[in-house]
Every structure is written in structure tokens, then in C-alpha cells.
Specification:
Elements: H1 10-35, H2 41-67, H3 77-80, E1 84-90, E2 93-99, H4 118-130, H5 135-148, H6 153-166, H7 173-193, H8 198-211, H9 215-227, H10 232-248
Antiparallel strand pairs: 1-2
Length: 250
């Protein structure tokens, strides 16, 4: 059986990653079936609890094995801040969108019973998986995660970002206004709780200039985003936005 120098079996790690994907897909399918009325609430809750426990155990096993791998540099912006760039034309304006996730580790679990963060971890993992294709659904999952942990900075940040992204599919101007207000409130709360969390600064700056057309408000957040010395691909996106915001600010 092949292992790394740290005793980690790469084949087993790959199996766990596949199991994680299967369980998260199963949870998504279960949600759709429940909303469609194909299963009753009792069966839904029983199945959801089972999938949640299994998914959380799988996530813990993955994290335990990854923790045994050689240490990586402490800050990996490409992993934390950027998983891709979407360019969307709307009313002749190009919207640059960053999407990302930040590494999350589970705290230790007691010898028996369910770790109280298990469901939280699964909710956040589901939200991350939906961020690109269904930002509105991702925002709803982050909101559910915040019911469990109202001051979770990652959930606040990415709820705000996915809410802003979800406005692209909205037709009612009132819905757009309300969603963007909630987006800014959520991102602002994340900045308040952790002023050194870079994701929130980057996203709130982009929302201000691209979604709210408020260059003056965007400037300090985009400046702070660049202070974290992001990689070239992030800097290439943010620097022109900052130049534009400075030029357009009164």
C-alpha cells in the first residue's frame, strides 16, 4: 500500500474525497426531493441526519490526513481567495467576480456523540459547492449556517458575496436593492469582527464599485485588499478597479 513519508495513504485520501463529493451531492438531491414533495418531513429529516453525520465524519478523516501532509506556506491566496474569475456583461458593464473559499478545520471531537460543528461544516461545504452555479442557493445555506453561529466570519463574508452575485438573476429592482443592502451589511459585519480577514475587504470593494456604483466607498476596501499582497491574478483584477474608483470618486 503506497504512502507518503508522513504515512498518509493517497489512495485512501482519494476515496474519502470521492465519498465527500457523493455525500454532498446526496444532500443536495435530498433537499430538491423534499422541496418537490417527493418525500415527507420525517423521512427527510432522518435521511438528512444520516448524511450529515457521515459527511462530517468523512470531512474529519480528510482533514486529519491532510494535517499529516508536509506543511504548506501559511498564506495561500490562490487557495483562499481565488478559485476562478467570472466575467459577466450586464447593461453594457463588465462585472468582475471573484469566488473562493478559505480553509476550514474542525475542532476536536469528543469520544462519543456528534460534534456540534458537524452540521455547520456540512452547510458551509454545500454552500461552497453551489457558489458558482447557484449563488442564491449558496447564500441561503450560508444564512442557515449563521443561524447556528451568527458571528462566523467566513459565512458572513460569503453570504454577502453570494447575495450580490444572486442579484444578476433578479428582475425586481426592490429585490435587488434589498439583497445588496443585506450583502453590504453582512460583509461589513465580517470586517467588523475580523478586520484582517482579506476576503471581506476584496468582496465589499467589488460590490461597492460594480454593484452599487459607489467608487468613493470602494476605495478603502480595495486598498486594504491589495495590502495583503495578493498573487498576480488577483492584483490584475483589483488594481484597475482601484484606479477606476479613485478616478471616479469626487
Amino acid at each position: 500500500m503506497p504512502t507518503t513519508r508522513n504515512g498518509v495513504d493517497p489512495d485512501r485520501l482519494a476515496e474519502l474525497e470521492e465519498e465527500r463529493r457523493f455525500l454532498l451531492r446526496s444532500l443536495n438531491d435530498l433537499e430538491r426531493e423534499f422541496r418537490a414533495g417527493d418525500i415527507d418531513e420525517v423521512d427527510y429529516q432522518e435521511l438528512k441526519d444520516g448524511y450529515t453525520v457521515r459527511a462530517a465524519a468523512t470531512l474529519r478523516a480528510i482533514e486529519d490526513r491532510k494535517a499529516a501532509l508536509p506543511t504548506k506556506p501559511p498564506v495561500d491566496w490562490k487557495r483562499r481567495i481565488v478559485t476562478g474569475v467570472a466575467v459577466v456583461a450586464l447593461f453594457g458593464v463588465v462585472w468582475w467576480a471573484l469566488a473562493a473559499w478559505s480553509a476550514q478545520r474542525l475542532p476536536g471531537q469528543t469520544a462519543t456523540g456528534l460534534d456540534p460543528r458537524d452540521e455547520q461544516t456540512v452547510l458551509v461545504a454545500q454552500a461552497r459547492a453551489l457558489m458558482f452555479e447557484q449563488p442564491g442557493a449558496a447564500a441561503a445555506l450560508y444564512a442557515e449556517a449563521l443561524e447556528n453561529e451568527p458571528d462566523d466570519v467566513e459565512s458572513l463574508t460569503y453570504r454577502g458575496w453570494t447575495l450580490a452575485l444572486s442579484t444578476r438573476a433578479m428582475e425586481d429592482s426592490t429585490d435587488v436593492t434589498d439583497a445588496l443592502k443585506t450583502s453590504i451589511d453582512s460583509l461589513g459585519r465580517a470586517v467588523e469582527l475580523d478586520p484582517e480577514y482579506p476576503d471581506a475587504h476584496c468582496f465589499i470593494g467589488i460590490v461597492q464599485i460594480r454593484f452599487l456604483q459607489s467608487p468613493t466607498n470602494a476605495v478603502p476596501y480595495l486598498e486594504r485588499c491589495l495590502e495583503y499582497n495578493p498573487p498576480a491574478d488577483v492584483r490584475t483584477l483589483v488594481e484597475p478597479l482601484l484606479d477606476e474608483a479613485r478616478a471616479d470618486a469626487p
